[in-house]
Amino acid sequence: MKHTGAIVTVVKPVTNPSELFVDFQWRVSAAHDWKDWLDARGKPVSPFPKDWMETPAAVVLAFNHAVEHRQQTGPVLGEREGASKPYRPMQREHSALYRTFAALDYQDRDAIRAFANAYGLLGVPQQVQHVFVGRSQKAHTAVGEPHLVWAFEICLMQEAIWFADTRPKLRTQPDDRGRLDWLFKRQLQYVRVQPPNLDSASPRFSIQPLTLLSAMWLQLSLALTGGKRWIACKFCRRALEISTEGSGFRRHREFCSDVCKTKDYRRRKYTALKLATEGLSVAEIADRTDTKRTTIRKWLSGRSTRRTARAGD
Fold it and tell me: What separation in angstroms does the CA of 29 have from each of 41, 77, 84, 94, 306?
């Protein structure tokens, strides 16, 4: 074969699928606030009846009605002024974030705000309002993601997880398979493949979600492609992926982080010492705190209590 003199660049193969997402970062603001969306009279815009959020079906109807009539509603969740910090949602410790999102009570605005404070906004289009209301012409500004959109997206994620968990039954239900395809495609279209940087010593391509919401749908997609199961962190109850893949923890894992492990240790120790002052035996304390008896004895011997634990085991 005649040599053409062309330079051949070898692209590093991906041995760990999690490497594909290592470059994806999302920023989290210091805090978030809900702001009302006001009409010309200064009253919150809420064109739906009070029971519009009682069921997921009602949420979907309300969302579709707002889209069809181009209605903007509130309240909206926006970032508070202040510093923000980046994190990597596709890393192992966040691989079950989509389940945390789906577990939210979409009617509980405090729970939604807490999620945003921990992981950031979804990345959906924001509404912007700056109006002067009332006789005093007081300025009102609202910038953020509508509660209705959050509720809608939570409901769709819940639906997709339900479909995914019962997917063996979908083989005989083509309508359900079509619905599941639609659920995934509407957000996975916001996931982009980044070409490799050939100037790098180890060029590789990467996958970049454009929003936190699309990243969570990508997480669910990845969960469906491998043999994975989920457990709850013993302290914070956040879901942990247990699998042999790079995105998962090993079977013996009990906590999502060293911080939760330390907090659980302190909580069990505090509870054990408190129960000892109430006169419970070592065996009873061990049973209530899910701790070995040898550990309980060590804790009790290291600190005097008003009442010693009964000697009976």
Answer: 31, 12, 4, 18, 46
How far apart (Å, rounded) are the C-alpha atoms in residues 120 and 256? Answer: 19
pTM of the model: 0.67
Pairing of strands 206-209, 191-194: antiparallel
- Residue 308 makes CB contacts below 8 A (sequence gap 6+) with 276, 300
3-state DSSP assignment of residue 226: coil
Indicate the number of domains in the chain. Answer: 2
Note whether residue 7 is domain-resident: no
| Domain span holding position 223 | 17-242
| Whether residues 182 and 54 fall in one domain | yes
**C-beta of residue 280 within 8 angstroms of C-beta of residue 310:** yes
- Secondary structure (H, E, C), 143-195: EEEEHHHHHHHHHHHHHHHHHHHCHHHHHHCHHHHHHHHHHHHHHHCCEEEEC
**250 assigned to some structural domain:** no
Same domain, residue pair 159 and 73: yes
* Concatenated DSSP letters of 39-97: -TTS-B---S-GGGGSSHHHHHHHHHHHHHTT---S-EEEEPSS-EEEE-TTSGGGTTH
Per-residue confidence (pLDDT) for residue 103, from 0 to 100? 93
Comparing 6 with 259, which gets the higher pLDDT?
Answer: 259
Question: 8-39 pLDDT, tens per residue?
Answer: 333 344 444 455 666 788 999 989 999 998 88
- Residues 204, 266: one domain? no
Are residues 46 and 190 part of one domain?
yes
Q: How far is CA 254 from CA 156, 199, 249, 272, in A?
A: 29, 42, 9, 20
pLDDT in tens, 84-98: 899 999 887 788 899
Radius of gyration of the chain (CA): 26
Q: Specify if 142 maps to a domain.
A: yes
Residue 1 included in any domain: no
- Contact at 8 Å (CB) between 11 and 196? yes
Looking at the structure, do residues 238 and 265 belong to the same domain, yes or no? no
Same domain, 160 and 56: yes
